[in-house]
Amino acid sequence: MPQNTDHIQTTHVGSLPRTPDLLEANGRFQEGEATAQELDAALDTGVIDIVRKQREIGLDIVNDGEYGHTMSSSVDYGAWWNYSFSRLGGLTPTNEDRWKDAEVKRSSPGNIVLTSFPDRRDRARFRDAYEDPTAGVLAHRASVAQPKITGPLTYTGQDAVVGDIRRLKDAMAETGAQQGFVAALSPGSCARVRNEYYSTDEELVYACADAMREEYKAIVDAGLTVQIDDPSIAESWDQINPEPTVEDYLAFTKVRVDALNYALRDLPEDQIRFHLCWGSWHGPHTTDLEFKYLVDLMLTINAGGYSFEASSPRHGHEWKVWKDHSLPEGKVVYPGFVSHSTNVVEHPELVADRIEQYASVVGRENVVASTDCGLGGRLHPSIALAKLESLVEGARLATERLF
């Protein structure tokens, strides 16, 4: 992992705002009005441009903005997950949108019940606000239907991930970027679609692990870092109604962690970073499970670095967790020092203060300044870029104080 030697390095979680040209090309391709070659050309141009912007802002560790992960519109909280539907065999399309349509599935242990978004406990508590289009809780988004699993899961995205890798490496070569990462879906998050084929929860999760491993391996074999996107570790807590015991939830979650480690077997830890968050929707989040219950389990994941929310109003205080938990030697953390969930642009001094807090508990060499979650699909492009600028400036201030 890229430990700091002379300055606080900077990165972000992955998703960056798509350009109008890319959204248009995507829409035309989905409607059959554009060829795959035309979409590829738009992606090639878009990735070079977004990597160049990251470098101009001053980010040390860049990515492709997740441009190869199709967004339905400029506001899209689910592209990090939905992209997998076109890269997996064994799925059958449906008309169900789990952001709108109630749907329940049962899993074990603890008879855990995962619900769809309308039945989340956070939404139930603040239902009037969630259903008020003027409240600013949820922005307008295009409906995206999720498939169901009707056969054995296989990975069919070989050409797509090769395209992601090629575009990022070409853009890095053109802009002089030295470090790059590509985001990929975790087995636990992959398993959150409706299952009509596998007989047990564990069988389903491990099938997802076998399939998604192909994507992880392709990325690391290309010399890039793979970021495992896994909100399921923390976010699923709010998706269980009624609320389970912490013990039952951790047992449920451990199955997902074990499956992820199985998928990552024999892959180099120094090319793996893990991202945990409590969900990208703009809601109160009063039902989030506290980080102190998750940190030990997170640290068992075979990754060289761990990304998590650290500036969210619900989780900004949790740097104190590291007073009682030791970061394994040689590993780093990627705390989010600017948030995807507010339009307020954080002051660089605040970013620097947050970096210093983490440096005081895990060491200055082990803190890579990042974002809480992906900014694309959640914030206006001008605000997203301003937050990255503030992040880089805050890291510069912190560097002056710490090195």
TrEMBL record:
Residues 1-13 have a biased composition (Polar residues). Residues 9-181, 200-395 form the Cobalamin-independent methionine synthase MetE C-terminal/archaeal domain. InterPro entries: Met_Synth_C/arc, UROD/MetE-like_sf. Residues 1-22 are annotated as: Disordered. PANTHER family: METHIONINE SYNTHASE, SYNTHASE, VITAMIN-B12 INDEPENDENT, PUTATIVE (AFU_ORTHOLOGUE AFUA_3G12060)-RELATED. This is Cobalamin-independent methionine synthase II family protein. It comes from Kocuria gwangalliensis.
